[in-house]
Amino acid sequence: MSKKLEFKTGQYVVYPTQGVGKLIRLEDHVIAGQKMKMLVIDFEKNHMVLRVPLERAEISGLRPLSSLKKMDEAIASARGKAGAKRMIWARRAAQYEENINSGDPMKLAEVVRDLQRRSAADTMTFSGRQLYLRALERMAQEFAVLHKIDIDQASEKIEDILGIPREIDLNAVEEDLEEEVEEEES
Asked: Which secondary-structure segment (H or E) carries 181?
């Protein structure tokens, strides 16, 4: 039998499909004639407030932040070799989406590991990049709160730890391509 999760006002929590939010208060509500305690969670980045019935918190996947140790283990696993890519992209993308929405740092790390660029020359599909960025952001949200830094710093730190190359200047690439096209037309 699992132990009952306890939550305190002011605590940061992870809601699987939304990421990290701050528990701002407990409220009593009467819904369909039943009195319920609701956890009120503020997701500042998403400009959203979520109310989760206390009795359904565990079922919904709401959890306290991971420990520093668990976050370090997740980042270490993201440094590993990418998983097998024998599945068609649509199925892999659905699996990545499921992993992102799980809120589990290890599953987020899998997505980051499988989709990260290994060198500045590597290219990503648009959908692959979007999935990668969402997984990285979810990891960075939790990492940021644990390390008391902002999300952008957390993303950079995670990418530095993983050895992911910095973005190239996409505008410079577009200009180069335009120049090549003009030269070919001449």
From this structure: helix 170-185
| Dihedral in degrees, nearest 10, Cα atoms 148, 151, 157, 159 | 150
Tokens of residue 34, six digits? 């039943």
DSSP state of 38: E
Q: What is the pLDDT of residues 5-22, one digit of tens each?
A: 788 999 999 999 999 999
The order of strands in the sheet holding 12-15 is 48-53, 34-43, 19-31, 12-15, 63-64
User: What angle do the packed helices 68-78 and 126-147 form, to 10 degrees?
Assistant: 150
Give the CA dihedral 101, 106, 111, 117, nearest 10 degrees. 140
pTM: 0.80
CA–CA dist 14, 127 (Å, integer) = 25
Structure tokens at 120: 């500045």
Q: What is the pLDDT of residues 26-72, one digit of tens each?
A: 999 888 899 999 999 999 888 899 999 999 998 999 999 999 999 99
Contact 71, 143 (CB under 8 A): yes
Domains in the chain, ordered, with CATH? 12-64 (2.40.10.170), 68-171 (1.20.58.1290)
Sign of CA dihedral 145, 166, 101, 107: negative
SS (H, E, C) 2-30: CCCCCCCCCCEEEECCCEEEEEEEEEEEE
